[in-house]
Amino acid sequence: MMTLPNNANRSNKSEKIILWLSFIVLVYFTGIIAIDLAKLDWVIIGVVREILTIPFLLLLLGLAIVSTLSLFRKKQKIGSLPFYSILILLATIIMLSLAS
Question: Which residue of 46, 52, 68, 77 lies most exposed, with the fewest beta carbons within 10 A?
Answer without folding.
Answer: 77
